[in-house]
Specification:
27% helix, eight-stranded mixed beta sheet, five-stranded antiparallel beta sheet, Immunoglobulin-like, Aminopeptidase, alpha+beta, binds zinc ion, 20 strands
C-alpha cells in the first residue's frame, strides 16, 4: 500500500510532453533528469532528402504546476539552397511560451551552445499553472484562419472561394475584397513554419475589411485577391517548408506537376486565368519570415520598369512602425535561387519569367526588432505590419 502510494505520487509529479494538437511537432523526448528534457527537433527535408530545416517545433508540457522545467533542443543543424547551415534555431531565436495558447511571450534567457548546436531554456510555472505551450514563434493554424474567414465572409464586399485541394484534401482559400480598377494579389504562408506571415495576413485582412476611412478608400480603388494559407497541410502537420509530398511551395514555380504540387498548380491557374481573362495585376506580394534579415525584393526585371514602384513601396513602409530593412535599399530577386537547376524559381521569379508580373518578396525577421526597442515581434506587431504593408503598397500604386 505504501509502495503504491509512493508510485502514484512519483507518477503524478512527472511532467509529460504532448504534440497531439494542430501544428504540434516534436521528435524524440528524453527525460535526462527530473524536470529536465532533451528534445529532438524533427525538422523536414525535401522530396530528395535535401535542404533539411529544423525551424518548427510546437509542444505542450502537462503536469508541471509550480515547477521549473529545463529543456535542451537538439538536432538543429540544417541545409538551405543546398548549403549547410547552423539552423534556424540560434541564439537570436529562443522560443515563445504561452499559458493559454492565445497570448505568447518571447523567452530572452536561453543558452545557445554552438558545438551541438543545441539550445537550453527554462520555464517556470506558477501554482495556478499546470501546463505550458512552447513554440518557435507564435503559432497560427488552419483553425485560426477559419475564425477569420467566418468573420469576414459575412461582409458583402468579401468573397471567399476555394482554388482547389492539397494532397491531404484541404481547401486552398482565396479571398477577394474591393471593387476598384487596380489589382493587388497577396500571398501568405507558403512555408508552414512562418506563422508570422499568417499573422501579417490576418492584420492585412482585418484592416481591409474594416470600416476605417482608409480601408473604405482602398476597397473603392482596388481589387485585392488574397491567398492567406498556401500550405494548409504543412501547417496542420507542424511541417517546416515542404508540402505533404515534400515539395517547397516557394520553389518549383518554373515546373508544372499538379500531382505532387496541387497547391502551385491551383495558384497558377487562378493567377494566369485572371490575366488570360483580360484582367491586370498591378502588384503581387508574397510574405515570409526569416531569422535576422528583413527586406523587400522586387522582380528580376532587367528593363527596370518596376523599379519606381519597388522604391516607393519600400520608402513608404519604411516610414512606418513595423518594417526595418537590413539594408537601406530594396533588393532585386535573381532570376532563380539556384542557377542551372529546374524547380528552383520562387513565386516572384516564376511569375515574372512567365508573364512579367510585378511581384515582390518580403522577408520579415523573427529575431529582435530595431523598431520594437529590441523586443521580438509578437502577434500585434505582425498584424500592424500587415496593415502598414497594404497601406504603403496602396500609396505607392497611387503616386
Ligand atoms: Zn518562406
Amino acid at each position: 500500500m505504501i509502495l503504491l502510494l509512493l508510485l502514484f505520487a512519483t507518477a503524478a509529479q512527472a511532467a509529460t510532453i504532448h504534440t497531439d494538437f494542430e501544428g504540434g511537432r516534436m521528435g524524440r523526448v528524453e527525460e535526462v533528469a527530473k524536470d529536465h528534457f532533451r528534445l529532438h527537433v524533427i525538422g523536414q527535408t525535401d522530396q530528395a532528402g535535401r535542404n533539411r530545416q529544423a525551424s518548427w517545433y510546437y509542444f505542450r508540457a502537462d503536469g508541471a504546476r509550480g515547477r521549473t522545467l529545463t529543456f535542451d533542443l537538439v538536432d538543429l543543424a540544417g541545409e538551405y539552397n543546398y548549403q549547410p547551415n547552423r539552423g534556424a534555431i540560434t541564439r537570436d531565436t529562443p522560443p515563445y511560451i504561452s499559458f493559454d495558447q492565445k497570448s505568447w511571450q518571447a523567452i530572452d534567457d536561453a543558452q545557445y551552445d554552438e558545438t551541438g548546436p543545441s539550445m537550453r531554456f527554462r520555464v517556470s510555472l506558477g501554482t495556478k499553472q499546470d501546463r505550458v505551450w512552447i513554440a518557435h514563434v507564435p503559432p497560427y493554424t488552419n483553425a485560426n484562419l477559419q475564425v477569420l474567414l467566418r468573420d469576414v465572409s459575412r461582409l458583402p464586399y468579401v468573397r471567399v472561394e476555394s482554388l482547389g485541394q492539397t494532397p491531404q484534401k484541404r481547401d486552398i482559400p482565396l479571398l477577394t475584397i474591393g471593387e476598384g480598377k487596380k489589382v493587388i494579389w497577396l500571398m501568405f504562408r507558403q512555408h508552414a513554419w512562418e506563422a508570422g506571415s499568417s499573422w501579417t495576413g490576418e492584420g492585412a485582412i482585418r484592416f481591409l475589411t474594416s470600416n476605417e476611412p482608409e480601408a473604405v478608400a482602398i476597397r473603392k480603388g482596388v481589387i485585392v485577391k488574397i491567398m492567406p494559407m498556401c500550405d494548409p497541410d504543412g501547417v496542420a502537420n507542424g511541417g517546416v517548408r515542404f508540402n505533404a509530398a515534400g515539395y517547397d511551395l516557394n520553389r518549383n514555380w518554373d515546373i508544372d506537376d499538379p500531382a505532387k504540387m496541387p497547391e502551385i498548380a491551383a495558384q497558377k491557374k487562378a493567377i494566369y486565368g485572371w490575366l488570360d481573362a483580360g484582367n491586370r495585376i498591378d502588384a503581387f506580394v508574397t510574405v515570409h519570415n526569416t531569422e535576422t534579415n528583413e527586406y523587400l525584393a522586387g522582380p528580376p526585371d532587367r528593363t527596370k520598369k518596376t523599379r519606381p514602384l519597388l522604391e516607393r513601396f519600400h520608402e513608404y513602409w519604411m516610414a512606418g512602425k513595423t518594417f526595418a530593412p537590413s539594408s537601406p535599399e530594396p533588393r532585386v530577386e535573381p532570376e532563380t535561387t539556384t542557377s542551372g537547376m529546374a524547380g528552383r524559381m520562387n513565386v516572384v521569379q516564376g511569375l515574372y519569367a512567365a508573364r512579367q508580373v510585378p511581384g515582390f518578396l518580403i522577408e520579415m525577421r523573427i529575431a529582435k526588432h530595431p523598431k520594437l526597442g529590441g523586443a521580438r515581434p509578437n502577434i500585434a506587431d505582425r498584424m500592424l505590419a500587415g496593415r502598414e504593408m497594404v497601406t504603403a503598397l496602396w500609396k505607392a500604386l497611387n503616386d
